[in-house]
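S1.2 Input.
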Amino acid sequence: MSAEIGTVSIPPNLPAEVRTWLSEAANALVGAYADDLEALILFGSAAEGRMRASSDVNLLIVLKRFDALQSDRVSARDLRDQSRARGGAHAGDCRCRGPLRRSAHAILELRGAPQDSPKVALEILAAELGPDHVDDLRNLSKARDELRLGAGTAAPLVLRLAGLAESLQRLAGALGE
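S1.3 Output.
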């Protein structure tokens, strides 16, 4: 049986700290987006019951309409602070910060140009893909350091980073050709 939060159902097989974080995140998102929130979709290893200590939590937010200013109501800092208040971990505490870095690292390794740092690997491939991706990575690092983005900038940055992820996927696919 899953725990219910309004209309949000959290899988019972997740670690307690992940279930707590998801509950808090869902409540914050429901509060921030109210009637515009269509769905919260958990995907990846957490949804598949394959979480490891290095796993992140992937949560897709589906909205009826998007308002960039409204999106700033729920900040990564708020969710991070909630996690720290309970003594839990969050994505920022992970030594290898995410799938973009891991993917870039693997691509360069398969190309025969391994890097010691996944961050450096991502910077190399971003530069190869174009200056806009380099700027996006700088903006992401700045946002991570400052724990905030300017009003209305979070969504465009996330969409451009999704484009970077698609570009990395194409590079990975080309390795098998």
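S1.4 Remarks. The longest strand covers residues 37-43.
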